[in-house]
Write a structure and sequence with these properties.
Triger factor/SurA peptide-binding fold; 3-stranded antiparallel sheet; 175 residues; single chain; 6 helices
């Protein structure tokens, strides 16, 4: 019976050592690597993406908040999602957005000559005596960009209204 007890003790000892090794190998607590701060339809915006965008933007404009940056990231997501319907397949996001804005917004904008002339007449002092013919292209570009921004804001509002957007602010809000 001594050999049976000895084998049982060895088996128990082996089992206890195995349990100890498995317990020691398992992490004592889970660590969050990244967290989702928002969903735009099926796409997640991660806290690391928000932090990176915030650092870059805050360096340029210290008055910007993380919530402002998050709203910009959401706007970018809805535009990218719509753009991918027109230009499927993987591409550079910045190039994709440029092509999308050119196709869906800029292509429909024409600044009438009388509007360019009226702007010049109202702001002659800003042009330091530069004749209209030399200032015309600069004015047209300015007025076109204003209209692109206005129409793009409207496009974004429409896309956001149709999108499923869920924001998960961290406890205490975005800092």
């Amino acid at each position: 019976m001594g050999s049976c007890t000895s084998a049982l003790d060895r088996h128990s000892s082996f089992f206890l050592i195995l349990v100890f090794l498995l317990a020691a190998a398992a992490p004592l607590r889970a660590e969050v690597i990244d967290r989702t701060v928002a969903f735009v339809n099926d796409d997640a915006i991660l806290l690391s993406d928000l932090d990176n965008a915030y650092q870059k933007t805050h360096a340029i404009d210290p008055s910007i908040t993380k919530d402002d940056v998050l709203q910009t990231l959401i706007n970018r997501k809805v535009l990218l999602q719509d753009a991918q319907k027109f230009f499927p397949g993987p591409q550079d996001e910045d190039l994709l957005l440029k092509e999308y804005i050119d196709l869906k917004v800029r292509a429909y904008i024409r600044v009438p000559e009388q509007e360019v002339r009226a702007y010049y007449d109202r702001n002659k002092a800003k042009f330091d005596g530069l004749p209209y013919e030399k200032a015309r292209d600069q004015i047209e570009t300015l007025l076109e960009e204003r209209e692109v921004n206005r129409k793009l804001a409207s496009q974004i509002a429409d896309l956001r209204a149709r999108a499923w957007i869920k924001v998960f602010p961290p406890p205490g809000g975005f800092k």
